[in-house]
Design a protein that fits this description.
Helices cover about 35% and strands about 30% of the residues. The chain is of the alpha+beta class. It has three domains: about 5-105, Rossmann fold, CATH 3.40.50.20; about 130-215, no CATH class; about 220-375, D-amino Acid Aminotransferase, Chain A, domain 1. The strands form five sheets. A six-stranded antiparallel sheet has the order 9-14-10-11-12-13, with helices on both faces. The two termini are about 35 Å apart. The mean pLDDT is about 90.
């Protein structure tokens, strides 16, 4: 099929010119080929000097191979850059300052977890679903917060994938349980400590004001494993928000997080809800609440940060059936739907950004044509 449109995918080399999400980019390319949009994968390292030319990777479905293609910097870009280390952060910052005026992004960057919490708190309908959250401000404040909520999480404000997360629980008047994952996602076994030992035990996490402290929602299943839900909210081919799907995630043994990258397993949302709630009407009500919240968050974030095309929204549902909003991820993965066998949700999760990109490009083309017509006829634009 001839390509009428182009979409750039801004990525980042992890090491030895290895791209983090190459399998996802291949799927985007295959779907793009069917829809008539050429997918150009490039990184800040693939730009030729100060020119607006890139040496992109293009997947050819006909021979199943990636090939290099020297072409102009595309006008529309899907940013999939995840920052691993200071060097990559500098590269992407430099790219944005030099080239952002030449391109339009499908999504604008969001803020860190603390900034996000503050902004979402401004919306009263969303605020009631947010766990109490404060910035880490030393151990005295931490212990006071822990005694108030009995269970808390410490999270790096800019971390992803469950790295560096600590869970603390009050057991008795002066005994506390500490569990977590280090920066490489390795599980740190649970330890029972006294109030006086907390500071020493937490020192390995190098806590500072870049950490947030969050009220813990009871997430432990009968088998002792933690769980949560990942919802994917996306714009479709008409530029409208929709919930693409929602799936449960169950953490491995002794883990305080349920992320799939950290060894978690995926289960259908309804199966997980049925294992906890017996009444079908209650289950349906919880699902409706979750979907309504997801749509509210997507629209409000877009209002605050500018255009977005998709968001991964992490939700918790407490034993009473209340839906809690744990996190908003602007660069979500979509493997969770493949793992639970929801093939249609998985297909949409891949095709929606492409269909939305085509909608944007057509809209821009129509606007350009009407401006030209207005000039030709001396009409106000």
């Amino acid at each position: 099929m001839a390509h009428s449109y182009q979409l750039g995918i801004l990525a980042m080399y992890l090491s030895e010119r290895r791209l983090e999400e190459l399998a996802f980019f291949r799927k985007l390319s295959v779907y793009g080929h069917k829809l008539g949009i050429e997918v150009l994968v490039f990184t800040p390292d693939d730009i030729e000097g100060s020119t607006l030319k890139i040496n992109a990777l293009v997947y050819r479905p006909s021979n199943g191979r990636w090939q290099r293609k020297r072409t102009a910097l595309p006008g529309l870009v899907y940013d999939r850059c995840r920052y691993h280390g200071a060097d990559n952060y500098r590269k992407i910052s430099r790219f944005r300052s030099l080239y952002s005026k030449h391109i339009r992004y499908l999504s604008k960057p969001l803020t860190n977890k603390w900034g996000m919490h503050q902004i979402l708190s401004e919306n009263s309908e969303i605020a009631e679903h947010l766990p109490a959250t404060v910035r880490y401000n030393g151990n005295k404040h931490l212990i006071r917060f822990l005694k108030k909520h009995k269970r808390i999480y410490l999270k790096p404000s800019s971390g992803t994938g469950g790295r560096g997360i600590v869970r603390m629980q009050q057991l008795g008047s002066s005994s506390f349980l500490i569990q977590g994952r280090d920066q490489n996602r390795h599980i740190i076994p649970e330890q029972t400590v006294s109030e006086l030992q907390i500071e020493t035990k937490l020192s390995t996490w190098k806590l500072n004001n870049r950490y947030i402290v969050q009220q813990g929602i009871p997430l432990t299943l009968k088998n002792g494993r933690v769980h949560d839900f990942r919802m994917l909210v996306q714009k479709d081919g008409n530029g409208e928000w929709q919930v693409t799907g929602c799936a449960g995630r169950i953490g491995p043994k002794r883990s305080v997080t349920s992320n799939l990258h950290g060894g978690g397993t995926a289960v259908p949302m309804i199966s997980l809800l049925r294992s906890r709630f017996q009444d079908e009407a209650v289950i349906e009500g919880i699902k409706e609440d979750a979907y309504r919240l997801g749509m509210k968050v997507a629209r409000f974030a877009e209002e605050k940060f500018g255009p977005q095309c998709e968001m991964g929204i992490d939700l918790a549902i407490d034993p009473k059936g209340k839906v809690w909003l744990l996190e908003v991820n602007p660069k979500p993965s979509r493997e969770v739907f493949y793992r639970i066998g929801e093939r249609e949700a998985y297909r949409k999760a891949i095709s929606n950004p492409l269909e939305y990109a085509i909608w944007l490009l057509k809209k821009r083309s129509r606007e350009h044509t009407s401006r030209l017509d207005a000039r030709k006829n001396n009409l106000p634009e």
